[in-house]
Amino acid sequence: MRLWEIIIESPETITLGYERLWKAQLGNQRKYYDTIRAKFNETHEPEYLLYLLARCVKASIRYNSEGQFNQSPDNRRLGMNPETMRWHILAASRLLKGRATVTFGDYRQSLESAKPQDVVYMDPPYQGVCLNRDPRYISLLDFDSFTASLRNLNRRDISFILSYDGKTGAKSYGRPMPDDLRLVHIEIEAGRSSQATLLGRDHITYESIYLSPALIERIGVIRKRHLTLAPKQFSLLAQNGV
Fold first, then answer.
1. Domain positions in the chain
2. CATH topology of 2-96 equal to that of 110-228?
């Protein structure tokens, strides 16, 4: 969250920090990555995290049992060029500054601040990764506690969208959402599973989206319950005031 705070409020600071780290690695990329990873685990400096995200395999964070960043570098590349990184950071800052508030804490406390006129979007760790400890997350989500929070949102007539679980091929992940929540379930076809492809299989991944009763009340009947997500490349446009 501290990284996002700096991106929004002090974009030039983080771009200069990233440029310094990116240039310092040249000629000694592998060892330098290990050095910055160790420094990040000790200090949690945002510019170190940005550099690691740009250099690590699949830009995917992994943690060990002690909560330390332990993902390996992608040795085929140097990470995003500083000028390109600067463009994206400035664009994000222009889009979010004065419009977004960054907070860190228990999700239940954040949900308490929601009002009926709001729309809450939630994308928690899926049950498929919660059943056993997953290296992408320092802490995992308790299903029963989470669904109790959703019931509380329903009681307060809060509109929410939940991205949670799904299936690959014939295999579904996690327990189904309780019927008493009265959620509208939409399946989004997200394409071939990369893991299945590596194993020589041709399985399609479906992501699950759930809409709350209060949201359905606002937007009306949902007729399509199965959608296809066509692969697209989205760019964040850095235009005046956007």
1. 2-96, 110-228
2. no
Q: What is the CATH number of domain 2-96?
A: 1.10.1020.10
- Do residues 92 and 15 make contact, with C-beta atoms less than 8 angstroms apart? no
- The confidence score (pLDDT) of residue 84 equals 97
- Of 216, 211, 167, the residue nearest 193 (C-alpha): 167
CATH of 110-228, one of 3.10.450, 3.30.450, 3.40.50, 3.30.2400: 3.40.50
Residues of the chain with confidence (pLDDT) below 70? 126-140, 166-174, 191-203, 224, 226-242
Q: What are phi and psi of 28, to 5 degrees?
A: -150, 45
What single DSSP character describes residue 181? G
Q: Chain-wide mean pLDDT for the chain?
A: 83
Q: How far apart are CA 14 and CA 8, in angstroms?
A: 10
